[in-house]
Write a structure and sequence with these properties.
The protein is of the alpha+beta class and about 280 residues long. It contains three helices and twelve strands. Strands 1-8-11-10-9-12 form a six-stranded antiparallel beta barrel. Strand 9 and strand 10 form a beta hairpin. The chain is elongated, with a radius of gyration of 37 Å.
Length: about 280
């Protein structure tokens, strides 16, 4: 009976040891395995518009066209702004001429008052006229600068490299300041919006390398890294498909992706693989 108990205890001990060894082996594998997330591609969109009102004269690009930073995208009818600029420039010249004459008269009044040729009132009046014209010149020069800026604003240039996502207006359309004419999809940066479950939050870190896979067969694996980890938890969005329940708490991530072939498009679903540190 005693031998049976000893043998039984030995076998039970072996079984428990095997169970513990299996547990630690599988736990190590789980901890070192890739963390798989599911998300969507996000890119920045820019609404391109004019800073001044006017009639659209020309648009140089169509939807889907690639544009480079600094390229001329569209222009307004310059006629009214040309006229206002020329008027402001002429006003500056006229004010400068009047100011020059007022300066000569003021100088003469100051010379004559010493010999009693004019009264102090005449000198004061000449000084006031001169000061007023100095102020008028400053005002006219400021107006000229504004009209010059307005003339410049009749042209809109691409703020960055991108693809024309939509062409909102056509030539002949009268637009107000800020009305979108184009919508530009920015080429860089491109990021992946994904969510990580709360138990896996401790496995990730800023700058963590990532592999990004699309659903396209034979497509390349894109490289990226984590650039943002939300400090606030939220419930899993309904648009995100994960293996966890939708009521789980998750944290939003932003994985900045390299997109050398421009195949990562707005809203595209992707799979993200992260390799936790061993």
């Amino acid at each position: 009976m005693r031998d049976w108990i000893i043998k039984g205890s030995f076998y039970i001990g072996c079984i428990l040891a095997a169970i513990l060894a299996t547990y630690f082996i599988f736990r190590e594998k789980i901890q070192n395995s890739d963390l798989v997330l599911y998300g969507n591609v996000d890119v920045r969109l820019v609404d391109i518009g004019f800073r001044i009102p006017g009639r659209v004269e020309k648009l140089f690009f169509e939807e889907g066209d690639l544009v480079k930073e600094g390229q001329l995208l569209c222009i307004l009818d310059k006629t009214p702004y040309d006229s206002e600029y020329n008027q402001a420039a002429a006003n500056v010249k006229a004010t400068m001429a009047n100011l020059k004459l007022a300066e000569i008269l003021l100088k003469r009044r100051k010379e004559l008052i010493g010999i009693g040729g004019v009264s102090q009132e005449d000198v004061d009046s000449a000084q006031a006229n001169y000061d007023q014209l100095v102020a008028n010149l400053q005002l006219s020069e400021a107006t000229l600068a504004v009209q010059k800026d307005n003339l410049t604003y009749t042209e809109v240039f691409a703020p960055t490299d991108g693809i024309i996502l939509s062409r909102v207006r056509e030539p002949g359309t009268v637009v107000n300041p800020g009305d979108p004419v184009y919508t530009l999809s920015v080429l860089s940066p491109v990021w992946i919006r994904a969510f990580v479950a709360e138990p896996d939050l401790g496995k990730i870190y800023y700058g963590m390398p990532a592999e990004i896979l699309t659903d396209t067969k034979g497509a390349p694996v894109y490289k990226g890294q984590i650039g943002f980890i939300s400090p606030m938890a939220e419930f899993t969005p309904k648009t995100v498909e994960t293996t966890q329940l939708r009521t789980d708490l998750v944290y939003r991530l932003r994985i900045y992706a390299e997109n050398p072939d421009w195949r990562l498009k707005q809203g595209m679903p992707v799979t993200v693989k992260l390799k936790p540190k061993k």
